[in-house]
From TrEMBL:
Residues 486-508 have a biased composition (Basic and acidic residues). Residues 559-579 have a biased composition (Acidic residues). RCC repeats lie at residues 89-141, 142-192, 192-257, 258-313, 314-359, 359-412. This is Uncharacterized protein. Residues 1-27, 431-628 are annotated as: Disordered. It comes from the Eukaryota. It comes from Chara braunii (Braun's stonewort). PROSITE patterns: RCC1_2 (PS00626), RCC1_3 (PS50012).
Length: 628
């Protein structure tokens, strides 16, 4: 995720630095990667879908943004939406919008950039950042507004009364000059302090605690108390933080003297302290001291499970899980393949890195959708930094790396305009979204592994399927002003906090309620079902098995229940896990729910039939017949 800071950086909202101390005058917005915002990991793509929502394999102009001078772009290593800011301080958003993270007053997906009109009367936007399901912007007057999911307090409004804000709301922050977002938390940079709010798990807010407690029912489930009020990180009091980058569950910041601090989840060495333990307070990195501090024009970045920063002489260092194969790097290590380059902007995606340097743009990492920009004849991925040929000779002001897409701001002055005219122009089918039918998913909770990643992805509730009365085969699609959704109803209650790369790297999720993607306009009679499931999954020392039973009823329009595997919001990133209703709460909400202990290493597992609740560690399946 892109860095924040007065100079350039990489991390969650690309906060590229000002060139030679002067302001960037704006440039053309380019895009590459996945344009199929409804795509989830494992989805198949029909020829029709591939034509409407292609993978854009090289940086391309967006037809709707031609001629608009962009000064800032933001994406997140776990987000499936984008933010762009123009020279007039107008904010544009597009992409996934299931929790209102686009700030457009609804939850309809947008396939092309749309002006966030609700901000125009409030502030002139200068910076923005994107989390998993939320967006935060900062205005020229130091105020901040946010929108999207707020169940962990990540919007910084001081309250979680509204779990979702589809229009901009004011954050309780003053005198901010920049912002960075993690998966479910936010950092605000001010002249006197660094503020944080949101989900405190892994100590990622930097306040010395993870605010973990047992829920009132006395079950095994642990809860992390939301922190909706932005609070100064006391460890950094008296230091002016000038750059900040957030990964999914960790942060990297630089103070005005060039010292680097990291904290949060420590798996795979992403904090750079030669160990994998979590840090609940900012801890200084010993590599960036003395003559090796980060200069004022340096960059920092944070990806899904890795980090980066440039030191004296422009040397770029990386650490953490920088590639899918091989060992993780436990401490900052110089990346010699791009030694000597002057990097003006850097950003880190889930497993990709973008760097704008001199008259080139460089990318590397593991990719599937063309987000590295190498073109149809180039490789999908690259373990080593490689130039993007179509941008060679251009002056790229800023870059932003999302979960499966990339953004660039390219200079249009001089011969830049002529070179840009040669680039492809992408015109999205703005009014069409894809749905794969109804779903009904139950999230499960997981236990932390010993090896450095949260247990992955906390798969726990059984699967139940039932037969519904025949209602026709057409998949419902709702269309509205160029943004379509499949009749979707979401009740997110969860926590998900890791890289989203399969079971090994998925989040340690809190178990939780049902996500229903129902059929639109369907009147099905009530039905009930019963299912049994067996679970399997990793524990600290091995594998175990669990059994569970569940009972529930399906109501009109409800869809099938699924096992709580990764409810992917995007091709590369798991969406959040959800709070589980257990004991009396489950009985009140769903009817009778039976719980029994699982085998060694697994804990409890509740299988849900048709509609139910589940919690546990492991993966379970069960099938049951729907009533008629």
């Amino acid at each position: 995720m892109a860095e924040s800071g007065g100079q350039e950086g990489g991390g969650n909202g690309v906060h590229a630095g000002e060139e030679d101390g002067g302001e960037v005058q704006g440039g053309e917005l380019l895009f590459c990667g996945n344009a199929d915002w409804a795509l989830k990991k494992g989805d198949s793509r029909s020829d029709d879908r591939s034509e409407k929502f292609p993978f854009i394999l090289e940086p391309s102009r967006l037809a709707s943004m031609k001629g608009i001078k962009i000064v800032h772009v933001a994406a997140g290593c776990v987000s499936s939406h984008c933010v762009a800011v123009d020279v007039d301080g107008r904010c544009f958003t597009w992409g996934k919008n299931d929790t209102g993270q686009l700030g457009l007053g609804d939850t309809l997906q947008r396939n092309v950039p749309v002006h966030v009109s609700g901000l125009s009367s409030k502030i002139k936007v200068i910076k923005a950042a994107a989390g998993r399901h939320h967006t935060v912007v900062v205005g020229s007057d130091g105020s901040s507004y946010s929108f999207g999911q707020n169940k962990h307090g990540q919007l910084g409004t001081g309250s979680i009364k509204g779990e979702m804000e589809v229009s901009p709301v004011k954050a309780l922050v003053q005198d901010a000059f920049d912002v960075a977002c993690g998966g479910e938390f936010t950092l605000w940079l001010t002249d006197v302090s660094l503020l944080s709010a949101g989900l405190p798990q892994y100590g990622q807010l930097g306040h010395g605690t993870d605010h973990e407690y047992n829920n009132a029912s006395g079950t095994v489930k642990l809860v992390y108390e939301p922190q909706p009020l932005p609070r100064a990180i006391s460890t950094l009091q008296g230091k002016k933080i000038v750059k900040a980058a957030c990964g999914i569950n960790h942060s990297v910041v630089v103070d005005s003297e060039g010292f680097v601090y990291t904290w949060g989840f420590g798996g795979h060495g992403r904090l750079g302290h030669r160990e994998q333990k979590d840090e609940w307070k900012p801890r200084m990195l010993d590599v960036f001291k003395g003559g090796n501090k980060v200069p004022s024009n340096g960059v920092v970045g944070a990806g899904g499970a890795f980090s980066a920063a440039s030191a004296a002489g422009g040397q770029l260092y990386t650490w953490g899980r920088v590639k899918m194969t091989g060992d993780s790097i436990m401490y900052p290590k110089a990346l010699m393949t791009i030694s000597g380059w002057t990097i003006r902007s850097l950003d880190c995606g889930s497993m990709t890195t973008l760097a704008a340097a001199e008259s080139s743009c460089i990318s590397w990492g593991t990719a599937q959708y063309g987000e590295l920009g190498y073109g149809a004849n180039g490789p999908k991925s690259s373990a080593l930094p490689k130039k993007i040929d179509s941008l060679e000779g251009m002056h790229v002001h800023k870059v932003a790396a999302g979960v499966s897409h990339s953004l660039f701001i390219v200079d249009v002055k001089g011969n830049g305009k002529e070179m840009i005219e040669k680039l492809p122009v992408f015109e999205s089918k703005a009014g069409e979204a894809v749905t794969d039918g109804s779903e009904h998913e139950v999230k499960g909770g997981g236990k932390r592994k010993a090896g450095g990643a949260p247990a992955g992805p906390a798969k726990g509730a059984g699967r139940g399927r039932g037969k519904r009365p025949a209602i026709g085969k057409d998949k419902p699609v709702l269309k509205s002003h160029g943004a379509d959704v499949a009749g979707e109803k979401t009740n997110d209650k969860g926590v998900h906090d890791e890289d989203g790369h399969g079971d090994e790297e998925a989040a340690a999720k809190k178990p939780g309620p049902l996500r229903v993607l129902g059929r639109a306009g369907v009147n099905s009679p009530p039905a009930s079902g019963r299912g049994r499931g067996r679970g399997r999954g990793a524990a600290a020392a091995g594998r175990g098995a669990g059994r569970g039973r569940g009972r529930g009823s399906k109501k009109q329009g409800d869809s099938e229940s699924e096992e709580p595997s990764s409810d992917d919001d995007s091709p590369e990133s798991d969406s959040d896990g959800d709070d589980t209703y257990t004991g009396s709460a489950a009985k009140k909400k769903f009817g009778t729910v039976g719980l029994r202990p699982a085998a060694s290493g697994e804990g409890l597992l509740a299988g849900a039939a048709a509609k139910g609740s589940g919690r546990g560690r492991g993966r379970g399946r069960g099938r049951g017949k729907r009533g008629k």
